[in-house]
Amino acid sequence: MSDTGRATALIESVEDCVDRALARVGRQLVLAVPLGLGKPVQLVNAFYRRAAADPGISLHILTALSLERPEVPPGLAGRLAGPVIERIYGDYEELAYMAPLRAGELPENIRISEFYFRAGAMKSVAEAQRHYISSNYTHVARDLVGHGVNVIAQLVARRDGEISLSCNPDLTLHMARMLAEAGRPCIHLGQVHPELPFMGGDARVAPDFFDVLVAGPDCGRRLFSAPNGQVPLADYAAAIHASSLIADNGTLQIGIGALGDAVAQACILRQRENATYQRLLAGLETLPSPVQQYRGGFDKGLYVSTEMFVSGMLALIEAGIVKRRVYDDLLLQEGLNEGAIGGIVDEQLLLWLRQCEALPARLGEGDLAWLRHWGIVGDSVTLAEGDLYCAGERLDNDIDQHAVRRVLLEQNRGMPLRHGNLLHAGFFLGPRDFYQRLRELEPAVAESLCMTWVGRTNQLLENAPLYRAQRRRARFINTGMMATLSGAVVSDALEDGTVISGVGGQYNFVAMAHDLPDARSILCIRSTRRDGRRLHSNIVPRYGHTTIPRHLRDIVVTEYGIADLRGQDDGEVMKRLIQVADSRFQGELLQAAVASGKVEADYRLPESCLNNTPQRLAAALEPFRRDGWLPDYPFGSDLTRVEQGLADCLKVLDGMRQQPREWPGLLWRALRHKPTAAAADYLQRLQLAPPANVGEGLLGRVLSSLLQERGWLQGDSRVAGGDF
């Protein structure tokens, strides 16, 4: 949004961009760059280098989710990970500020502030913790502008002279508007990447939105990607429970990671293999669900309103599950919701519009433009001096006449309404094949995916009547770290103030679930976590930090079931949470609940809840894993099958460090096991065949034995499942 009125400059040098920024706004630079993928890395690094070399420049970088190429770990894990990391990240350029930030060696004239961290990445980085900004996602633009932003820089896509904010229209548009309204000087810089998917909708901006576009030879380095992770069976269990709460003809939001992938896969099973899905659900249930469940397919389909567009969402579109289109017109949307009209152009649609008095019998230019916009009449219909013409043929300007309606609809009859959206999202990030699939979308599908700002996706304030109509039967599915017995949820930080990730949009979605008439917030929490050799419950009596307060409690899901907490009294909330806790902790949790005075001293948990153990879940889910219904990587992997098997087994070995009692049995089985020819590719991949010494020989036997036990040597399908 050039504030000089000049046309956008197209240059090749990021250093030239820095020069132009300094000339425009001076030497006190406050640089805002998007979270995640949208960072223009080469441009950010040019600003960093310039400020690091010149103490007279002050540089404050405001951002979130600073992504880093993983380090190659030592030992055997490094033999596996090294080639994989190189294959995935190639010539990706690191953010220059990350290494000195981690080392506590940032120059005094440079400050980095983030409002969201990659989970756990900055736990021990004092400088990052000190400058963390805690802000709801919908308030971030306001807060960053409040810091004095005078440079906005972003990675963009370009196609036929058009510009798209692509992966990150989440905040840029709002910040630019706020700065313009305030009359604040700001330079807008775009870095063009040739492989960034061109996204339409609100991500498409005017050619002069940016003051400068840079498209130099180094600007096409590999995009950062977030590979799909392995889905453990515990996440599948929680996802199957959560997926049964998703109503057909409704709205869905899910996040990134293993749980989001598991929810998407569960929905696909529910749609395509419903009998299998129902058997899965029946095998997991211990109590009748306290909330309505939906076990049938998605006949009418879902619409997606989410801050983050993930690869699992695209899989749901490809599977025909996300197919409910919404329209940015309240009258049309309400007509669709009520079943008064369909999404197809027909005579009934025109009659209904007349009945609602949305159209006069005699059309004006505005009426005709509206009809054309939604694809109800074709471009061949025109008005001249008050008369209607269709392909040059004059018609009476009276749509109450059947003959007139018939001719008006002749071109578009039977066609779907235009400008319907399957998805609204604020940003995207995912594996490399996700970006490729987005680049190769059919035009009709691409046009139905609207990347927009989070003020739209995460709240209702911008247009509450319309968004309420669009987001019917919404289910907002997110993750938390812990839940207290009062129903409060901890998702972003520890009680000592250490930030693990950030609140992001979670509070927005939980609050919105309470504001919409038929929506639910579903927070999924793994029942336990391991800290060294000690196992902890993630359902806790109390905790000294809260992300979601107890007065917004709704649905909590663990791998052991569904706890519907909305509107319940404190005693019932405690009972329901203990019922879905791991049975190894239920006794002490019940004792704490009774001690609080909230639960009666003679209360007893239902017998069916007393076997909430990993062993029971494994018995219920392993047959489905074995048959291929619960794959480790439901939406593909950057790892080869051999690498997947090795990663799985090395993860098991790493976990066994915390359980030394398991080692003798494993070693005994390994010594009795003779590596087979099927294990050769696996051992060669880790340079263990032939072994260099006795230790490597024993390690090869251990791995070969594990590969056999966990089903990697049995053909295409695994026999054993993932860890809990």
TrEMBL record:
Keywords: Hydrolase
Superkingdom of this protein's organism: Bacteria
Any Gene Ontology biological process: acetate metabolic process
All copies of domain Acetyl-CoA hydrolase/transferase C-terminal, residue ranges: 451-593
Any one Gene Ontology molecular-function term assigned to this protein's record: hydrolase activity
Ranges annotated as spanning the membrane: none
Pfam families, sorted: AcetylCoA_hyd_C (PF13336)
InterPro entries the UniProt entry points to: AcetylCoA_hyd_C, AcetylCoA_hyd_C_sf, ActCoA_hydro, NagB/RpiA_transferase-like
PANTHER family on file: ACETYL-COA HYDROLASE, ACETYL-COA HYDROLASE-RELATED
Protein name listed in UniProt: Acetyl-CoA hydrolase
Lineage: Bacteria, Pseudomonadati, Pseudomonadota, Gammaproteobacteria, Cellvibrionales
